[in-house]
Amino acid sequence: MSKAPSQIPADPTRDLAFDILCGVVEHRRMLETTLDRSPLTDPRDRASAHRLAATVLRHMGSMTELLQPLLRREPPAPVRCALLMGVAQLRHLETPPHAAVGTIVSLLRRRGLAPFAGLANAVLRRVAREGDSLAEGLDPDRLDVPPWLWTAWGRRARAIAAGLHREAPLDLTMRPGAEAPDGGERLPNGSLRFPAGTRVTELPGFETGRFWVQDAAASMPARLLAARPGQSVIDLCAAPGGKTAQLASAGAKVVAVEREAARSVRLRQNLERLGLEVECVVADALDWRPAEPVDAVLLDAPCSATGTLRRHPDVLWVKRPRDVLALAKDQDRLIDAAGAMLKPGGTLLYAVCSLQDEEGPQRVAAACERGWIHDPFTAEELAGMPEALTNAGMFRTHPGMWAERGGMDGFFAARLRKSS
Ligand SMILES: C[S@@+](CC[C@H](N)C(=O)[O-])C[C@H]1O[C@@H](n2cnc3c(N)ncnc32)[C@H](O)[C@@H]1O
């Protein structure tokens, strides 16, 4: 007999994970957007919901394939999301089978999908019993990446996919001269690495601003700009401020330009915690211009963010090829806006957290056709991360690099000079 709704146990964590997944699958809504809108306040519940949803998104292709022989017809999208949550609990999150099945059956009843509760019960029990044989012969690396991305990544695809299946560690950038918290691994590029799941706010020195969170690869563009004390630098597209903090703590006079007012508040809060003085401007970098042209601009341009898929696996299923093309056009416009802020001969450090050729090497080639001069990075400049130096003197990483150390985000950077 089916239970009356009042008898169904509440489970806000799984409800939120379900909402996140339906948002991604049905509306191409980013995970953070649903999380931001959720009324759930308990940080542990939010973290659990995030973990469950992210696990589904990381393994979505292979888990969908595993379910295929167990379904006679295609279930509605929300039911598929619930089934995937069940499979993730059984196969990737070590939830005991009775809880993995029971929680999904309850979820379907709570969410007005009671007619599918029997199906979920039968299908998930089979996955619990026969999951290993059902998974035999599947290629998770290939299946968990949408075909357009697999093709675009070419020879890097398998290594990137393997990186996607690992949870990202926590990397910190230290303020110059600050004492490092115990227990971290010092990486060759200078970042400090802690295991995945480490809570940054609990590390000694967080409140007093001795460090900030920044993936090892993400710390490289500002390191490569090598700002000098007193040098005027504009940081375009600045929030939440990891690169601004690097430039300011190197002693540069930094103006940080951010278009979104809410993100600019976060930028200011982060800089305040770090005790760094920076002029923060809320403006569109396409229109804003400094009073005087400057020596250097760092442009960390908005992009598809495919380089961050270890932390944001929703990117895989939300972004489309046409998004990459639109973002690439925006990047051309931002590069030329940066040109209008620079002195003749000034330096532009263009960076994106993208793995796509269209956002990266192709933008540099297009900029050179418009009169910019590409100034290659040298092996000495990239001594801390030599594997990231491309033959053309650009900086490029992907999540499969440094696999034995826990990987890194995908980033691209190149140095351009404004013609004199
Ligand atoms: C990739 S994030 C920047 C990350 C940041 N540089 C850091 O290291 O912490 C891109 C940022 O650019 C901002 N943005 C996008 N388009 C912009 C524009 N035209 N002008 C200024 N900021 C923009 C977004 O709001 C977002 O905060």
TrEMBL record:
Keyword flag Transferase: yes
Domain SAM-dependent MTase RsmB/NOP-type: 137-419
GO MF annotation terms: RNA binding; RNA methyltransferase activity
Binding-site list for S-adenosyl-L-methionine: 237-243, 258, 284, 300
One BP term from GO: regulation of DNA-templated transcription
Xref: SUPFAM superfamilies: NusB-like (SSF48013), S-adenosyl-L-methionine-dependent methyltransferases (SSF53335)
InterPro entries: MeTrfase_RsmB-F_NOP2_cat, MeTrfase_RsmB-F_NOP2_dom, NusB-like_sf, NusB_RsmB_TIM44, RCMT, RsmB/NOL1/NOP2-like_CS, SAM-dependent_MTases_sf
Keywords: Methyltransferase, RNA-binding, S-adenosyl-L-methionine, Transferase
Domain of life, source organism: Bacteria
Active site (record annotation): 353
Protein family membership: Belongs to the class I-like SAM-binding methyltransferase superfamily. RsmB/NOP family.
Protein name: MFS transporter
Organism: Swaminathania salitolerans
